[in-house]
Design goal:
mainly alpha
Length: about 45
C-alpha cells in the first residue's frame, strides 16, 4: 500500500477550467477559474 502523502504528491496541479493556467492551491478553495477569467484581477499590471 502506498503512503497517503505519495498519493497527494502525485495529484496533478490545479488548472483553470477556462484557460488552463496553473492555479495556486488554497485551503477551502473550490474555484475552477483563475482570477483573470473570473474578471477579478487582484494584482494591478
Amino acid at each position: 500500500m502506498k503512503p497517503v502523502s505519495e498519493f497527494y504528491n502525485n495529484l496533478p496541479k490545479k488548472q483553470c477550467a477556462n484557460c488552463g493556467t496553473v492555479m495556486d492551491e488554497q485551503a477551502e478553495s473550490y474555484k475552477t477559474q483563475c482570477p483573470q477569467c473570473e474578471g477579478k484581477d487582484n494584482y494591478p499590471a
